[in-house]
Design brief:
The complex is a heterodimer.
Chain A lengths: L4 E3 L4 H10 L4 E3 L5 H7 L6 E4 L9 E2 L4 E4 L4 H6 L1 H6 L1 H9 L3 H4 L4 H7 L7 H6 L3 E6 L2 E6 L4 E3 L2 E2 L6 E7 L6 E8 L10 E9 L6 E9 L6 E2 L1 H7 L6 H14 L10 H25 L3
Parallel strand pairs in A: 1-3, 2-3
Antiparallel strand pairs in A: 4-5, 5-10, 6-7, 6-10, 8-9, 11-12, 12-13, 13-14
Helix pairs in contact in A: 9-10, 10-11
Chain B lengths: L3 E7 L2 E7 L5 H8 L18 E4 L2 E4 L12 E3 L9 E2 L1 H8 L9 H14 L5 H7 L10 H12 L15 E2 L8
Parallel strand pairs in B: 1-5
Antiparallel strand pairs in B: 1-2, 3-4, 3-5, 6-7
Helix pairs in contact in B: 2-5
The chains are: A alpha+beta, B alpha+beta.
Chain lengths: ~290, ~180
């Protein structure tokens, strides 16, 4: 790893100033992506701006909506009782990141800002209609998390901006969500395809009133499948609706062929996983209908 | 590149040093403190050989900068038992032949120690997932898992007979030969 300068500011404003002070300065959260890029792929970062001393970024609270500071680790989210109860799609995703050692270090903010198409936390956040709060020297702004992702490694952050917090609204009663990914091995691998489904049942307890379907690792960004959502909404998740949703997800996806899978195989997997994940989400929604 | 002063607690003792920002916690432990029980395998967070506890949580010392451990409580494999003794997890891995080449074992011991502290009665599947971030290139997983289950189930270990459950004196060196 090349040598670098290191700053550990104690506020977002200071972090922002440090980030604009040198070209290619980068914020450091858990380091489980950035340090590997610097060690193994020769990424040159002249100034590493650690966020560990910015206290507000470490806060995790679930009073009504869920507020996840950018430095909260994937492990904290995966094991948080309220997250597992009200936002299980998110604990599903956070629990799949790396190994226990990685989850104890890697952060939700880092997973989102690294913007890997295969990131396991991001589809859940999009499915939950989360909001990203961004701080910088020019003030703060908030955007729909869906608009945060711009491509592999590309986000809506401009120079000097820092993701500070992600807010996730609490799903209404009768809601349920789930996230699964396909991997050839069970652990220490990244998604070949991934599907997150968050749905809400109508008062009859059977009909899907609302649904969000988000696909991972099959497009440059976590991708909402509007087609799959249309197929699920208004249905009772009968076999025909599930088949239509799977086919719509496969049609909406823009997968590539790479060392992990061909594009065709990814489309086939989406049909299976969309159905499977929707059924898990349905089971959770029923359990949550009271 | 200015050096940074760090002060942390390693195995219950205060450790201070001047480090370059690029110095990994792994290298600080091994080179500056001489604690060579912690191993570097892949250097990319895949193999788990460098696992240590930072503020009680198992993590990769190869993906942690020394400067980021400033103020932390760090435990390495050297800090689990006092000199001349083993913890039940260490004793069980010895007794069940879990150690082959041995390179992965400090990391496995650190991960298993944290995992069993947090999940004292896992199923076999949960235990295997718990240590899934630790690769054994000898593929000796079965004996490691059997040894860990001996601890989980409170089975008597030959190495524990004489000692307490938290700290086990090593047997005396055999005489002759």
């Amino acid at each position: 790893m090349r040598r670098f300068d290191y700053a550990s500011p104690t506020s977002v404003a200071e972090a922002s100033q440090a980030l604009v002070s040198r070209p290619d300065a980068r914020p450091l959260a858990g380091g489980t992506d950035l340090l590997i890029q610097m060690k193994e792929r020769g990424r040159i970062v002249p100034l590493v701006v650690s966020l560990r001393r910015v206290g507000a970024l470490h806060e995790l609270s679930a009073n009504g909506s869920l507020a996840i500071g950018a430095m909260v680790t994937c492990g904290e989210v995966a094991e948080h009782d309220a997250v597992r109860r009200y936002w299980p799609i998110l604990s599903d995703g956070a629990e799949l990141v790396g190994s226990i050692q990685i989850r104890n270090r890697g952060t939700v903010g880092g997973n989102v800002c690294n913007a890997a198409p295969s990131a396991d936390v991001s589809p859940a956040l999009v499915a939950l209609a989360a909001t990203a709060h961004i701080g910088g020297s020019a003030g703060t702004r908030s955007i729909d998390i869906e608009q945060f992702f711009r491509g592999p490694g590309q986000t809506a952050l401009t120079r000097g901006e820092v993701l500070t917090r992600i807010d996730v609204p609490r799903p209404a009663a009768g809601s349920g969500g789930a996230y699964l990914r396909h991997v050839p091995r069970r652990e220490m691998d990244i998604a070949v395809v991934a599907v997150g489904v968050q749905l809400r049942l109508a008062n009859d307890g059977r009909t899907v009133a609302d649904a969000r379907v988000v696909l991972g690792a099959v497009a440059p960004v976590p991708l909402r499948s509007r087609g799959a959502e249309v197929a699920l909404i208004g249905s009772t998740l009968d076999a025909a609706a599930l088949t239509r949703a799977g086919e719509a997800a496969a049609a909406d996806a823009r997968p590539i062929s790479d060392v992990r899978a061909t594009a065709d195989y990814r489309r086939e997997l989406l049909k299976v996983y969309t159905r499977r994940v929707a059924q898990i989400a349905l089971g959770r929604a029923r359990a949550n209908a009271g | 590149m200015p050096l940074h002063q760090i002060s942390l607690t390693v195995n219950g003792r205060r450790a201070t040093g001047q480090v370059e920002p690029a110095k990994l916690l792994l290298d600080f432990l091994r080179e500056d403190l001489g604690l060579t029980g912690t191993k570097e395998g892949c250097g990319t967070g895949d193999c788990g050989a460098c696992t240590v506890h930072v503020d009680g949580k198992a993590m990769h010392s190869c993906l942690t900068l020394g400067v980021e451990a400033d103020g932390a409580q760090v435990t390495t494999v050297e800090g689990l038992a006092s000199a001349g003794s083993l913890t039940p997890i260490q004793a069980a891995i010895v007794e069940y032949g879990g150690t082959q080449c041995g390179f992965c074992i400090p990391g496995i011991v650190m991960m298993a120690t944290a995992f069993l502290r947090d999940h004292p009665h896992p199923s076999e599947d949960e235990l295997r997932m718990g240590i899934a971030g630790n690769l054994c290139r000898c593929t000796g997983y079965d004996k490691i898992v059997k040894g860990l289950f001996a601890v989980i189930e409170g089975r008597e270990l030959i190495l524990t007979r004489a000692g307490s459950l938290t700290e086990i004196p090593l047997p005396p060196e055999p005489e002759g030969e």
